[in-house]
Design a protein that fits this description.
Largest sheet: 7 strands, mixed
Shape: globular
Number of helices: 0
Number of strands: 11
Structural class: mainly beta
Order of helices and strands: EEEEEEEEEEE
Length: 117
């Protein structure tokens, strides 16, 4: 059984920074894609950033140049460095792990990020 634990959320002023981290425990293959999604109140969940085991990345257009996704394979973790935060980045952020070998995905419980002055 795979479990994901997120940390690093909180309240920050516009222009500030936060770093989210998600650590996976259990049987985690190296053939995987790790992602961050977010859901703001009244809106659909959207992909923020994704990184494959090959190192390929993908970003939501509105966060390009501000957010950076990175993984620590030895620790089965993925981080999202968020800089120059905007009010519209306020949302619950979710970590997702997709295991290619068994074609299954797992989700974290979500962590709140609030950007407000």
């Amino acid at each position: 059984q795979v479990q994901l634990e997120e940390s690093g959320g909180g309240l920050v002023q516009p222009g500030g920074s936060l770093r989210l981290t998600c650590t996976a425990s259990g049987s985690v293959s190296r053939l995987r894609t790790m992602s961050w999604h977010r859901q703001a109140p009244g809106k659909q969940r959207e992909l923020v950033a994704r990184m494959t085991s090959a190192g390929d990345t993908e970003y939501l257009n509105s966060v390009k140049g501000r957010f950076t996704i990175s993984t620590e394979n030895a620790e089965n973790s993925v981080s999202l460095q968020m800089n120059r935060l905007k009010v519209e980045d306020t949302a619950v952020y979710y970590c997702q792990l997709f295991l290619s070998g068994i074609h299954r995905d797992f989700w974290g419980q979500g962590i709140q990020v609030a950007v407000s002055s």
